[in-house]
UniProtKB/TrEMBL annotation:
The gene is rimO. GO terms for cellular component: ribosome. This is Ribosomal protein uS12 methylthiotransferase RimO. The lineage of its organism: Bacteria, Pseudomonadati, Pseudomonadota, Alphaproteobacteria, Rhodobacterales. It is found in: Cytoplasm. Belongs to the methylthiotransferase family. RimO subfamily. It comes from Jannaschia ovalis. PROSITE patterns: MTTASE_N, RADICAL_SAM. Its main location: cytoplasm. [4Fe-4S] cluster 2 binds at residues 168, 172, 175. Gene3D superfamilies: Methylthiotransferase, N-terminal domain (3.40.50.12160), Nucleic acid-binding proteins (2.40.50.140), tm_1862 like domain (3.80.30.20). One of its GO terms (molecular function) is protein methylthiotransferase activity. SMART domains: Elp3. Residues 1-29 are annotated as: Disordered.
Amino acid sequence: MSQNPPDLRPDLAPRATLPSDARPGQPKIGMVSLGCPKALVDSERILTRLRAEGYAISPDYAGAEAVIVNTCGFLDSAKAESLDAIGEALRENGRVIVTGCLGAEPDYITGAHPKVLAVTGPHQYEQVLDAVHAAVPPAPDPFVDLLPAAGVSLTPRHFSYLKISEGCNHKCKFCIIPDMRGRLASRPHKAVMREAEKLVEAGVRELLVISQDTSAYGTDWKDRAGAGAHIEALARDLGSLGAWIRLHYVYPYPHVANLIPLMADGLVLPYLDVPFQHAHPDTLRRMARPAHAERTLDRIAEWRAICPEIAIRSTFIVGYPGETEAEFETLLDWLDEAQLDRVGAFQYENVAGARSNALPDHVPDALKAERYERFMEKAQAISAAKLAAKVGTRLEVIVDAVDAEGATCRSKADAPEIDGNLFIDAGFEDLALGNILTVEVDEASEYDLWGRPVAR
């Protein structure tokens, strides 16, 4: 059984697992999905539409007649990883279609890999399909080609990402997502609920709500209906479906407090994924983010007063241009006071097109690495103390995997891949993927828990 911490880069999603069923003579397409969960949802939508047109999905290069590489452009390191993946697909297969965030820079891709068949940008599903049609003509057989009611899923069958909007209206200097994915465009409430209902009907036990800015959902509509009304209504309706509802990428607006009673009432998981990024007001101003860290601490206290069991996770940037030792120490002090449950960080990187590149006083790489280690040491100590306090308590968990050694589970405080696990190494023989059960915690480490099932 694997143990945390995983790679805490915020631009990574769980590894996609491709289905491999195909009838004789059926055209087959491969998919390499990189980047965040939002990109994983894009990959699922592309594959669902290809399946509807009669294509099979190949889990390897050799069996595919063409390969789609869904790329990430969040950081320069992610861009390099995307170029490497494209190069690997070209070597192993030779017929490659590129899409995703890095596709917004077609010259960058073709400059490195001129033999790709086509390049399309993020969520350009029709253009991807056109490129596939040109490379591998469809050959559907409506009598035998069946599409699952919930579409093609690249995650285990018991949880699924639910994307509620595209784009972002923020202008953070370190981020180019709005340039690649555009301004906020919220999906209609009814469309989101239809998709969620289908997923739950197909056996999904946990819905992970994602977007670039979940708490801004619906603010782009003419009917604004009051601050936060649309995301509150959506969360309430999703909570009526009987699945675990987990909210990701919740920007800390004041109206987020309206979601917390839904968590206290059990409609939504008591879990908030909030991108705080930093704590010092000067650093936040240079990032072009709201510079009121003290209000953030007040909001955290308010959330915990309403729902004491709430788990708060966040990611932070260390070594942002101009970050002084005093600013970094303020971040460490803030972390001590905030006592967040799950914390990740990454060292600042320049990204082509980001306004932060032009800021003065860039932090040397060695100093960024040293601050990162200090930050993670602090975060790890907080996590260890919080998890140690859970020993002897009972938690409800969902089963992610079962093998000969035991069962790997997650509590309500843990999202797939990015947070911790709870391991069961005795009494797990009758457990199956997606089971939800109560366990008693009997051991803790810095990131993970161990426990045993409570007799039912």
